[in-house]
Write a structure and sequence with these properties.
290 residues, mainly alpha, MetI-like fold
Length: 290
């Protein structure tokens, strides 16, 4: 009579689980290093002197912490003025895009009328038009209208760029709202405007908030449009202001430039950290169809 030795499935499963957990932790640590080290390098390099960039390795720490780079960055880059211009352009464009885009999405998704699907496809087709393709025609139009060297061309262009995506995404949010709510509001005597402002907008506020933040960062970080339609230093946006650190012969003041970039990056990181959970809730809400 022979007896079988008991198989130790538990120990094998435990080892496999520990191996997977270790591999996961290593991958997470690697991703964190890849993501965090560039920010760490930008921040520490912002305290370097110009000689540190030319005579020492790129990854070396600053020998003398030069805090005056931040003063130079604020003065040379005129961050206060450029940030104000960027805020004006970004906030005005974002509010107009969200208001018009939400109203258009409501009309195309909730209201019933002939041809709405064709018009929605036509609006979505605007996503396939590259910005670089329309810069020259737009510049000609703005120049003939006398709008160049002002913030108006930037606002108009950003609104035109942001509307197709906003209409498309807001239509998906309205698609998730039960139609019975609008029918009940109509039976209670609510008109189309009240259905939109009192019923529709509160129910898709997460989508509006999420899109608002996406539009904010997209417009805030734009350089091409801001540089094409505006040549006045007093109306430069914050991304255009970073070009002030280039010298006459192409020499770049790397310390003050990295100091200015650090101010911009870490200010945006603080804003995003404060609103991260709200953005994730908005994205999740828009991915579920009711």
């Amino acid at each position: 009579m022979t007896t079988r030795k008991p198989q130790r499935h538990g120990s094998g499963t435990l080892v496999a689980g520990l191996s997977r957990r270790t591999l996961t932790n290593v991958l997470i640590a690697l991703i964190l290093i890849i993501e965090i080290y560039p920010l760490f390098w930008i921040f520490t390099s912002s305290f370097k002197d110009q000689d540190d960039f030319t005579t020492k390795p790129l990854w070396s720490m600053p020998e003398h912490w030069n805090f005056s780079n931040y003063v130079t960055a604020w003065v040379t880059g005129d961050i206060g003025t450029t940030a104000r211009n960027s805020l004006i352009v970004t906030l005005v464009s974002m509010v107009v895009i969200l208001l018009i885009g939400s109203a258009a999405a409501f009309a195309l998704e909730v209201m019933i009328w002939r041809g709405r699907s064709s018009i929605l496809m036509f609006v979505i087709g605007g996503l396939m038009v590259p910005t670089q393709l329309i810069l020259l025609p737009l510049f000609t139009i703005y120049f003939k209208l006398g709008l160049t060297n002002s913030l108006i061309p930037l606002i108009i262009t950003y609104i035109g760029q942001g509307l197709p995506l906003t209409v498309f995404l807001m239509a998906t949010y309205f698609r998730a709202v039960p139609r019975e709510l609008f029918e009940a509001a109509a039976l209670d005597g609510a008109g189309i405007f009240r259905c939109f402002f009192s019923v529709g907008l509160p129910l898709v506020r997460n989508g509006i908030f999420t899109l608002g933040m996406l539009l904010f960062f997209s417009i805030w970080n734009d350089l091409l449009v801001a540089l094409t339609f505006n040549a006045k230093p007093s109306l430069a946006t914050i991304q255009v202001g970073l070009l002030n650190f280039s010298g006459q012969y192409g020499e770049v003041a790397l310390g003050p430039l990295l100091a200015a970039i650090s101010i911009i990056i870490f200010a945006m990181l603080i804003v995003y950290a404060l609103i991260n959970q709200r953005v994730m809730r908005g994205i999740t809400a828009g991915s579920v169809k009711g």
